[in-house]
Every structure is written in C-alpha cells, then in structure tokens.
Amino acid sequence: MIIDLRSDTVTKPSPGMLDAMMRANVGDDVYKEDETINALESKVADMFGKSHAMFFPTGTMANQTALKLHTNPGDQVICDKYAHIYNYEGGGASFNSGISCNLLDGSRGMFTAQQVIEAINPPEFYHSPLTTLVEIENTTNKGGGACWDFQEVLKVKQVCKDHNLGFHLDGARLWNALVEKKETTQQYGDAFDTISVCLSKGLGCPIGSVLVGDEQIMKKALRIRKILGGGMRQGGFLAAAGLYALDNNIERLLEDHKKARELGDALLKSSFVKKVEPVETNIVIFELNEKYSENQFIELFSAKNIKLIGMGSNKLRLVTHLDYFDNQHDRVLEIINNL
Ligand SMILES: *Cc1c(COP(=O)(O)O)cnc(C)c1O
User: Fold this and answer.
1) Are strands 76-80 and 100-104 parallel, antiparallel or unpaired?
2) A Gene Ontology biological process annotation (predicted)?
3) pTM for this predicted structure
4) Is 192 helix (H, G, I), strand (E, B) or coil?
5) Over 90: is that where the pLDDT of 339 sits?
6) Where residue 168 falls among pLDDT bands split at 50, 70, 90?
7) Which of 4, 9, 170, 215 shows its CA 20 to 30 Å from the CA of 70?
8) Which atom of ligand 1 is the closest one to the Cα of 139?
9) Judging by DSSP bridges, how do beta strands 306-307 and 3-4 pair with one another?
10) In the chain, what are the domain boundaries?
11) Distance 172 CA to ligand 1 centre (A)
C-alpha cells in the first residue's frame, strides 16, 4: 500500500465520478455545442454570481488567461512573493502577457491592503511599469494552505477600485477556504473581477479548472484560450467529472482538514520536528530539526511506502486528499509517533 501525500492532485476518479463521465452528453465545444461543458460553465458562473464562466484544461491556463485579460504588455501585476503565477507557471506572466510581477513580502502568501497601496506605481510616472492588476491566492499554496481574512480581501478590493486596478483570485483551493471559514462563492464573486477555481485538486477530478467573470472582462477569454491551445472538442466527459465533484466533493474537504490537523499535532510532538506551520486546511508544512536531513527523511518515509515532498531548507510538505483513507491515516500517525 503506497500512501501518497505529495499533493491533492494525485487522486483518481471514483466509481461514481467515472460513471457520471461515461454518461455525459457531449459535442464540439469549439462550436459551443458540448452541453455538459455548457452546463458546468453556467453552474459555476451562477455559484459566483457572474455572467460568464469558461472551462480550462489546467489552472495554469485559467490564470494565464486572466493575466492576459487584465493587462497589456509592459504592465505590472502586484502579487505575493509566494504566488503560484510567479513561482510555478513557468514564467508564463512574462512569456504570455509580457508583464512583470511586483512581489510583496507577505506572510504565508498573504499581504495587506496597505502593502498594495505602497506597491502601486503612480500612473503618471511613465518610467515605471503601469500597475494594472492585483492578484491573490486563497488558500495559499506555498503559504501552507493558509486562508485569507475576508475583511482584508475587501480592503484590497477597495484599493483596486480606488486605483482602477483589476482584481484576480487564484482560487485553485478556494473550496478548502470556503468550507473551513464558512464563506460563500457569492461573497467571493462580489469581491473579485475574475476567479479561477480548480476541479482537479481537492475535488478529485482528473482534469479541469474554471475561470469566472462578468461579460465585459470575459469577452476576450475565448480567443485567448484558443491562442493558448485550450480550445477543446468533446471535453464534456471531463466537465461531467466537474459537475459530479461540485455536487459531491466539497463538504467532505472538512475531513481532509481534520486529518491534516491531526498530522500537524503528531508532528509537533515528535522528536524530529523543529516547527510546524499552522495547519488551516489540507496542507501541512513542517521543518526538521538536526535529527534528519530533508533527503534522509524523504528516503525514510519512502522506505515505509509513504510519499511526501521536500520544499528545500529542511522543510517538507504533506497534503491530505480524498484518496487518503482512514486506515492510511492511522498508519502514518503510528509511524510519526514511533519514529
Ligand atoms: C495547482 C495550482 C494552480 C494550477 O495548477 P495546474 O497544475 O496548472 O492545474 C494554480 N494556483 C495554485 C495556487 C495552485 O495550487
């Protein structure tokens, strides 16, 4: 039995999800004739109270499309130094949109409205890149699954409004934040111009993300997705997985969070850990003390058939998900307690 805690992307479609996929009615989505993709897009748009939603093969493509929608070449986006769009999208911000990132020194991937104010280049000062967009992530990936304080989100939104800046949310794991903080999609839809959400992380789909926004901003999205190579044909088989996941796999994320907290508590009591980042959702980041090096620890766990990933600087990451079962959890806790 391999226990894979590297990421919540390692899940495989459940029998129920596969069944929904096999039964999907499909068509050519480039002609907008895939009724299952159309149903998924209108469902997600409704959830967020936006007029438009678009299905994407990946979260990266959804975010990159959003960056392109909000900016012109030469512009600058304000985001955290941990941001996925800066660290993990292959340099796409510069490659696809010709923009630079103004990186804020936040805490666990989150920053304040005041920091945003200070980072905006004055529009009349033509020597600096023109600031046109603010991007945040919820939950934060590199920040260890931390959740934004919604009041601070609203303050950042106000700053964007005052300075005529776009506001994009990378909500790859927004579902985790919503169930944990008892917040709603509607609230987030009201706060942001565009939001990308992922179906293939905690929700357990094999593929898929959705970008939502109102008509004005989403007008060009179809063309940009096409340019990026994301115009799909009978993608409804994949969208069916998304519809199934939205109906069945959101509330259960709380179980992943509970397991993550239990792992965090066990690690805190162990003899080999120096520090555990606060566990808010399904990600546990911990730092080793001098007992083991990062590589030694990964090998030690791998010998026990447990996979996890190293993050450098003696930090390691565990991510709980819907294919991490109770019996696997008991085994991992037992190993941590006895190491
Ligand atoms: C996973 C993730 C994405 C999208 O990644 P893909 O692998 O392209 O689907 C975007 N943002 C964050 C914060 C993520 O964790």
Assistant:
1) parallel
2) glycine biosynthetic process
3) 0.97
4) coil
5) no
6) very high
7) 9
8) 13
9) parallel
10) 3-9+251-338, 15-248
11) 6
- 26's tokens: 């499909």
Protein residue closest via CA to atom 5 of ligand 1? 59
Nearest Cα residue to atom 12 of ligand 1: 172
Tokens found for residue 102: 């103004």
- CB count in 10 Å sphere of residue 74: 12
Please give all residues whose beta carbon lies within 6 A of any atom in ligand 1, as ranges.
58-60, 63, 84, 137, 141, 170, 172, 198, 201, 209
d(Cα 91, Cα 32) in Å, to the nearest integer?
31
Q: Does 15-248 carry CATH code 3.30.930.10? A: no
- Atom number in ligand 1 closest to CA 209: 9
CATH code matching the domain that covers 3-9+251-338, chosen among 2.30.29.30, 3.90.1150.10, 3.40.1130.10, 3.30.360.10: 3.90.1150.10
- Please choose, from the candidates 39, 33, 64, the residue with its C-alpha nearest in 3D space to the C-alpha of residue 239: 39
Element housing 167 (H / E): strand 166-171
Alpha-carbon distance of 76 to 92, in angstroms, equals 13
Six-digit token pair at 107?
């805490």
**pLDDT mean over 113-129:** 97
Strand partners, 312: 315
CA 146 to chain centre: 11
Q: How far is the CA of 60 from the centre of ligand 1 (A)?
A: 6
Q: Would you place residue 279 in the very low, low, confident or very high pLDDT band (cuts 50, 70, 90)?
A: very high
How large is the average pLDDT for residues 176-188? 98
Distance 62 CA to ligand 1 centre (A): 9
Spatial distance between the Cα atoms of 140 and 174, rounded to a whole number of angstroms: 9
Among the atoms of ligand 1, which is closest to the Cα of residue 170?
Answer: 11
Nearest to 207 by CA among 241, 173, 179, 177: 241
Say if residue 51 is exposed, middle or buried (CB neighbours under 10 Å; 0-12, 13-18, 19+): middle
pLDDT for position 146 = 98
